[in-house]
Amino acid sequence: MNYAEVEVRRCKACERCMDICPKGCFEHSGKANDAGYDYIVFKEGAPCIACGMCYTVCPDVAISVYKG
């Protein structure tokens, strides 16, 4: 199963991953990280195709993509 992980401490909730993901795999957590941002999380069971677009657009290098 393909999936992505967002490093909570680095995420600034810019929503670029949400905007670019062709499968809509990301959402706001509803919680604040240490910097006070409502960080982004990967939706459990989301239909990720491991395209890597989220990783590519993240300005804080807070996303890792896993295939398989």
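^ that was protein a. below is b, sequence first then the tokens
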Amino acid sequence: MNIHDYLRTCRELSALCSQNGWIDNDTLEVQIMDQRPDQVIAAVQFEEVIMEGAGCVAGRVPCFGQVRMRLDGAGNVVGMDIPR
């Protein structure tokens, strides 16, 4: 799975959310900071969508951080963690 597809479907990225909302994948941006054969370090940013109890959008919060993605021999992402 390539980097963008992985980030759009992984659960680990939600650790960057601050309000327990959900990630708006349409706002997801990725900037590769360092790439090696076995890993990629990337800066990510996206908007977290905050919902009201009635199911309406209450707001959006910008979120950002760095992630480290582990790659297999073919360059596919096989896992990710968020360095602290």
